[in-house]
Specification:
41% of the residues lie in helices and 18% in strands. It is built from 14 helices and 12 strands. It has a 6-stranded parallel β-sheet, sandwiched between helices. The chain has a 6-stranded mixed β-sheet with strand order 7-8-9-10-12-11. Strand 1, helix 2 and strand 2 form a beta-alpha-beta unit. Helix 2 runs parallel beside helix 5 and helix 5 crosses helix 6. The C terminus is likely disordered. Bound molecules: guanosine-5'-monophosphate and manganese (II) ion (MN).
């Protein structure tokens, strides 16, 4: 039987469904999870959404937010493990490698449930029974929309679901600016508006909900923590634990900061190094021709998309940054010469 038909058959009777997404979920991760959850609830399934960590408060408006279990909270973790063990189906959204969900990864690998993977990141691991995956999609939310339509359920997409899905597409295209903003993106978004998504309200919730501390933190980071290496077409931020504490940084407060480095004229590679409890978190962004996901995967135990990727380091902040500069210096030819860049 064709894969989609098998998946559809799985969903034809009420199931216990466990949905999860990548650590530190963004709007696409949470929007695809809650968009899918609200749809599956309407279809009569029992649904639990579990995130491997907390997420920014500017996503709290999404329907179903109150019921999301945060695996880092002991009381939520207990219930999440119980739900995972009971699950008939597990949906993995907006990630394709199981190390993106921390400890949940191994539990998912060992589960006997029917596993569904919906995602748009490159180099997926094989761990699912049904994969709805395309790197051509700008966002997992775009794929969720396409999948619901292919299942013949467009009419079940209500305003709440449309808004969850719109949020992920808006942010993963950088506000409809990145090269992934395809005709299909605009067609899907047009449908979501038709189904009730309030675009200015969503933009306001996501982009215009800064705290004074966050705005001051951004000002501080640009003034004091930005390093520009014009000779390497590279600019990056180095943010210490102390800096984050000083500005009472909350989850999501560093999101978007790296884009200021990329916005500089002549800069093709931008990075943000932030010192967290569990090591150095790195965000990479690049101009169209530079494949930053390959760089992240080769040197910083990470990955992502061609022009937006992430990674981590267990070394000190200083050593990580020194290594980064050295690597960029050494791999300049490979990084900045379009001939050697593999297509998406
Ligand atoms: P961000 O810089 O916003 O945290 O992440 C940028 C993109 O890279 C996102 O699509 C995110 O899912 C992906 N990404 C971030 N960190 C990692 C990582 O450690 N491994 C992989 N495979 N992808 C990552
Ligand atoms: Mn995404």
């Amino acid at each position: 039987m064709e894969a989609l038909a098998t998946f559809q058959k799985e969903l034809s009777s009420p199931k216990k469904i466990f949905i999860t997404t990548h650590v530190k979920p963004d709007a696409d991760a949470l929007g695809s999870s809650l968009g899918m959850a609200n749809y599956l609830l309407k279809k009569g399934h029992e649904v639990t959404v579990v995130t491997p960590s907390d997420y920014p408060s500017f996503l709290n408006w999404m329907k179903g937010n109150e019921e999301v279990l945060d695996f880092t909270k002991p009381e939520d973790q207990k219930l999440a493990i119980k739900k995972l063990k009971q699950a008939d189906m597990i949906f993995c959204l907006d990630f394709s490698v199981l190390n993106r969900v921390n400890e949940l990864g191994e539990m998912i690998r060992e589960s006997n449930a029917y596993i569904v993977n919906i995602d748009h990141h490159q180099d997926p691991e094989e761990f699912s029974n049904f994969k709805f995956w395309s790197t051509q999609a700008a966002a997992t939310c775009e794929l969720v929309y396409d999948l619901i339509v292919q299942l013949g359920d467009r009419e079940l997409i209500d305003k709440d679901i449309a808004e969850c899905l719109y949020a992920g597409i808006m942010t993963d295209t950088g506000g409809f600016r990145h090269p992934n903003t395809t005709k299909n993106v605009h067609l899907v978004v047009a449908e979501l508006i038709d189904l009730g998504a309030n675009v200015s309200q969503i933009a306001n919730w996501i982009y215009d909900s800064n705290s004074v501390n966050r705005l001051k933190f951004i000002g501080f980071a640009i003034t004091r923590r930005l390093v520009v290496r014009e000779d390497l077409h590279t600019a990056y931020f180095v943010i210490s634990k102390k800096d984050l504490k000083k500005y009472q940084s909350r989850t999501g407060d560093t999101e978007g900061l790296v884009n200021y480095a990329l916005s500089l004229d002549g800069i093709k590679l931008a990075a943000l190094f932030s010192e967290r409890e569990d090591g150095i978190k790195i965000s990479f962004r690049s101009s169209t021709e530079v494949a930053v996901n390959k760089f992240a995967a080769s040197y910083f135990n990470g990955g992502g998309h061609k022009n937006a990727a992430g990674g981590k380091s267990a070394q000190s902040l200083k050593d990580t940054v020194e290594l980064f500069e050295k690597l960029v210096e050494e791999s300049q030819a490979e990084l900045f010469h379009s001939e050697s860049i593999t297509a998406d």
